[in-house]
From TrEMBL:
Species the sequence originates in: Paracoccidioides brasiliensis (strain Pb18)
Region (Disordered): 1-25, 38-64
Function as written in the Swiss-Prot or TrEMBL entry: S-adenosyl-L-methionine-dependent protein methyltransferase that trimethylates the N-terminal glycine 'Gly-2' of elongation factor 1-alpha, before also catalyzing the mono- and dimethylation of 'Lys-3'.
Protein name: Protein N-terminal and lysine N-methyltransferase EFM7
Protein residues bound to S-adenosyl-L-methionine: 117, 144-146, 166, 204, 236
Keywords: Cytoplasm, Methyltransferase, S-adenosyl-L-methionine, Transferase
InterPro entries: EFM7 (IPR025784), Methyltransf_16 (IPR019410), SAM-dependent_MTases_sf (IPR029063)
Listed PROSITE patterns: SAM_MT_NNT1
Composition bias type Polar residues, residue spans: 1-15, 38-48
Amino acid sequence: MDSQQQHSTPYQSDESAGVQPSVGYPQASASFYHVSQTGHAHVTSPQHPASLVHQPAPGHADADADADAEFGDIFQEPEGFLPPPKEATFEEYTMRSGQTIKLRLVGSHPLWGFLLWNAGKTSAYYLESKARDWVEGRDILELGAGAGLPSLVCAILGARTAVVTDYPDCDLVENMRINAKACESLLSLREGKASPLHVEGFKWGADPETVLRHLPADSDSGPRAAGRGFDLLILADVIYNHPQHRELIESVKQTLKRARHALAFVVFTPYQPWLLEKIVAFFPRAEENGFVVTKVFEKLTEKAMFEDDPGDERLRRTVFGYELRWKEEELVNQSTTPHT
């Protein structure tokens, strides 16, 4: 496909005409596909790093121990054989106000937390434009936050609560804590008032109490309130993980406040265009689970994150933004049958 060719909206729905959501792209393989820094493809499972660890075959749990006893340490790597872990890197984001946020990124990680993604930067910029309606005085939760840029921006813009979460991995969680602490100097806090930022490791589909407990107890979103939840959820570059759509939507359902103003802000770039159909399958699934899906923007960035990667170059440069809001019947009946 010509990189300059005009693209259709990646998610289209015309319920009145009985048309199913479609993207008009070839079917992608079922594998979750990443492109390494060298440009070669490899399959990984970003939400389950434990799956990368060798597991003995059934009935052979002691195989490794037996091998060690028989061969001694001849297969041990000598000291200095493995490369040292990569150092953390830093990037800066300048807000419209001129304030600069310095972000620490982990040196390397199977969940790709060592990059500041285009969707994260675009989300932060868009949230600045929506601060009055979406952010100020609101309770906010970010899922799959990485370095946490959108959450930090929301805290600076006056969010009442901003909970930054990612997969419960020690390196990722500690890095988010470092960024949240470094951001405190940019917050306009009254004397004696605590930071609105909270950091948690959170696995999609898990018990939401880990994050819900950070909601103010004296509000209508507090721990004892019916329909409690966050006013705004941020999902920046997370729906690429299509094998986890079910768990992700379940977490959205369990943490988004049952109110007309509440919304989940979903932003993504199709870094692997051949997987676009699987990625955008998130949206019809969200509709099946009680949400109205609306496209809010489409932005063409200056360049793709990985310029030498295969696939349509224009798509790899494009950031798409959507919002999910509760259907009216979901606001009336809060005891819905799960569809995920």
